[in-house]
């Protein structure tokens, strides 16, 4: 049968009108995907132009094209980082430091790559054009797989909204602090580009949610752009920006997300991530996800396990000669430190090589101890048991020792019902980790002020916070909101730093401390030169109570610590520290500014919930040396 052309056209139109089983592509999502792909193409073109300027050793042209490239990247960063974070962190926009290649048989150190390293080079008097050429080449190559993968991504509404919320964390913690701009003063301008890029998708979803949401979104975005436009780095009010822009928009995007009934990450994925999506403030007490860091599901831990862990924590029976408990070096009244330059050992005539780091908020980390040698919280116990100067007892032997107590046998049976063996090493470690996971401090005077629960924060502390996150550059290593080395916005990496810490606080004749830190932690993949003298960046929460400071207790007061940083660390006071990650330049802080930073740090004190009587310990029937402990 021969069909006429008009008949065929009518049939086609009818077929197109029939609903299909496939979900149509949302035009906004399609436009967003196209805009992202076009952004990558534009970035490639800018990088090609930059390559030609580098080839010609044209410094002025290279700087102009570098900033043009960075602007394009920032305008599309929120989605690119969401889908390609690992690659971008290592090759495109990560910290300008060597990195360890993962999942290889032997140690392999990757040289610094990406925009931040380029910026360091371009803002020097003598540009290393050969390295610049290498950096541009590798950046261009890295964009290819990102472009290919991005073309194949099916974009959903939840991706866009989640990516925007992560970008707000990134802007606030890495952007306005200057972390991403080691050579120039362009950080706030770049924050403007990144923030402005959120306007279109925010308004799209806000308008879908209703006029009330749209009015709120329009106002907070306008306020944010006003704050960032031509702002001065040293005087920018980061606290005001947090309270009036970042937190309100962070909460609003969540409200819009749930109001529209869009599925969330937790409804789609089974593996936990480091942040709780329902948190509506960067300083929400539940922003960081305990499940992710503990590597257990909190709901699988029982009250009996928490209570058992607390009992074990305070019991000197855990050490071979019954002289030390965990609490011997982790005193609750000192925010679970010991107030000593170097901690006690099981031999009264000796000390350990370092002091005890705080256990408050210790959970929120990817690695533990000053040298990051333990990859899980419950592995800390194993290291302490194995240490000849500490508990000095194999975990299997400790389990047998605890079985001598009928009280402990009963407690373990209640905590782990159904187990054939009443006490096992894994139960000891799990219980202690469970107890330490409860030591969370997120309700300090500063937290309450930021969340709008209190107005009680001194002007000195407010100014100190702005200095901490800005001019003093503290926030570029002690990342908000835990003010530690876990890196936002995904909080999936833990940093260590080479500061050039001195052996004592003798500033007239300073000597570099001999402890090699992470370089000598026994992990083959970290025995890299850039980790020599590198130590974990601890939280500064409750720092008022954790003196003396640094791994060796070399500085008794916070004012002395600030003096050390103000001078530029070890290099700044004349020591030879080849891989120092702290910039050696003086910060130029006045004594009044130092006092304000200290006031802010003291506003993070919050240990009331942890201070109290130690639990009554189970008896060891017939074991004389364990009576009365």
What does this structure look like?
The protein has 629 residues and is mainly alpha-helical. It folds into 4 domains: 22-155, A middle domain of Talin 1 (Up-down Bundle); 157-283; 301-406 and 427-438, Cytochrome Bc1 Complex, Chain D, domain 2; 445-606, Orthogonal Bundle (Cytochrome Bc1 Complex, Chain D, domain 2). The protein has helices spanning 5-17, 27-55, 59-75, 77-92, 115-122, 129-152, 157-175, 187-196, 199-209, 211-228, 238-259, 265-268, 290-294, 303-313, 326-329, 379-386, 395-402, 406-415, 425-436, 445-450, 459-468, 558-567, 569-572, 591-602, and strands at 99-100, 109-110, 496-498, 534-536. Strands 1-2 form a two-stranded antiparallel ribbon. A two-stranded antiparallel ribbon has the order 3-4. The longest helix is centred in the first third of the chain and has 29 residues, at 27-55. The protein is globular. 43% of the residues are buried. Mean pLDDT is 93; it is low at 1-25.
Strand order in the largest sheet? 1-2
CATH fold-level topology of the largest domain: Cytochrome Bc1 Complex, Chain D, domain 2
Count of DSSP strands = 4
In CATH, the homologous superfamily of the largest domain goes by the name: Cytochrome c-like domain
Any idea what the shape is? globular
How do the SSEs run, as a string of H and E?
Answer: HHHHEEHHHHHHHHHHHHHHHHHEEHHH
Helix segment count?
Answer: 24
Helical fraction? 40-55%
Task: Characterize this entry briefly.
With 629 residues, the protein is an all-alpha fold.
Supply database-style keywords.
single chain; 629 residues; A middle domain of Talin 1; Cytochrome Bc1 Complex, Chain D, domain 2; 4 domains; two-stranded antiparallel sheet; 24 helices; 46% helix; disordered N terminus
């Amino acid at each position: 049968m021969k069909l006429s052309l008009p008949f065929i056209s009518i049939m086609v139109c009818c077929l197109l009108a029939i609903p299909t089983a496939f979900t149509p592509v949302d035009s906004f999502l399609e436009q967003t995907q196209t805009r992202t792909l076009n952004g990558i193409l534009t970035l490639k073109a800018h990088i090609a132009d930059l390559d030609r300027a580098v080839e010609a050793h044209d410094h002025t042209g290279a700087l102009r094209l570098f900033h043009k490239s960075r602007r394009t990247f920032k305008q599309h960063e929120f989605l690119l980082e969401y889908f390609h974070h690992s690659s971008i962190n290592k090759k495109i926009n990560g910290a300008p430091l060597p990195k360890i290649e993962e999942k290889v048989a032997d140690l392999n150190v990757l040289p610094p790559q990406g925009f931040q390293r380029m910026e360091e080079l371009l803002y020097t008097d003598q540009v290393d054009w050969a390295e610049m050429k290498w950096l541009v080449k590798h950046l261009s190559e890295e964009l290819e797989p990102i472009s290919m993968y991005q073309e194949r991504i099916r974009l959903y509404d939840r991706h866009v909204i989640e990516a925007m919320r992560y970008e707000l964390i990134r802007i606030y913690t890495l952007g306005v602090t200057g972390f991403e701009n080691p050579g120039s003063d362009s950080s706030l301008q770049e924050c403007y580009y990144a923030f402005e890029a959120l306007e279109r998708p925010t308004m799209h979803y806000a308008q879908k949610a209703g006029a009330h949401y749209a009015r709120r979104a329009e106002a907070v975005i306008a306020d944010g752009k006003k704050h960032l436009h031509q702002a001065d780095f040293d005087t920018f009010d980061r606290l005001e920006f947090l309270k009036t822009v970042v937190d309100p928009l962070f909460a609003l995007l969540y409200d819009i997300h749930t109001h529209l009934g869009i599925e969330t990450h937790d409804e789609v994925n089974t593996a936990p991530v480091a942040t709780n999506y329902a948190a509506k403030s960067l300083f929400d007490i539940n922003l960081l996800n305990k499940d992710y860091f503990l590597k257990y599901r909190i709901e699988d831990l029982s009250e009996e396990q928490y209570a058992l862990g607390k009992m074990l924590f305070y019991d000197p029976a855990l050490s071979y000669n019954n002289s030390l408990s965990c609490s011997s070096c982790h005193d609750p009244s000192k925010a679970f430190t010991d107030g000593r330059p170097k901690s006690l050992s099981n031999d009264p005539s000796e000390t350990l090589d370092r002091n005890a780091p705080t256990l408050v908020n210790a959970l929120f980390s990817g690695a533990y101890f000053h040298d990051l040698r333990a990859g899980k919280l419950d592995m800390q116990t194993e290291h302490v048991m194995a240490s000849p100067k500490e508990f000095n007892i194999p975990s299997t032997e400790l389990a047998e020792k605890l079985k001598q107590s009928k009280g402990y046998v009963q407690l373990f049976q209640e905590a782990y019902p159904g187990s054939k063996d009443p006490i096992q090493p894994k139960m000891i470690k799990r219980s202690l980790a469970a107890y330490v996971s409860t030591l969370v401090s997120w309700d300090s005077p500063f937290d309450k002020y930021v969340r709008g629960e209190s107005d009680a924060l001194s002007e000195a502390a407010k100014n100190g916070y702005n200095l901490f996150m800005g001019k003093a550059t503290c926030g570029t290593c002690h990342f908000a909101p835990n003010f530690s080395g876990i890196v936002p916005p995904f909080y999936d990496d833990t940093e260590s730093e080479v500061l050039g810490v001195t052996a004592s606080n003798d500033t007239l004749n300073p000597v570099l401390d001999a402890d090699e830190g992470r370089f000598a932690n026994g992990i083959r993949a970290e025995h890299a030169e850039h980790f020599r003298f590198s130590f974990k960046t601890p939280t500064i929460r409750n720092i008022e109570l954790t003196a003396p400071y640094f791994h060796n207790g070399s500085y008794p007061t916070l004012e002395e610590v600030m003096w050390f940083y103000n001078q530029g660390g070890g290099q700044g006071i004349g020591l030879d520290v080849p891989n120092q990650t702290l910039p050696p330049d003086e910060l130029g802080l006045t004594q009044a500014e130092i006092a304000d930073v200290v006031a802010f740090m003291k506003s993070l004190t919050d240990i009331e919930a942890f201070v109290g009587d130690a639990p009554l310990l189970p008896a060891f029937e017939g074991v004389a040396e364990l009576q009365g402990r």
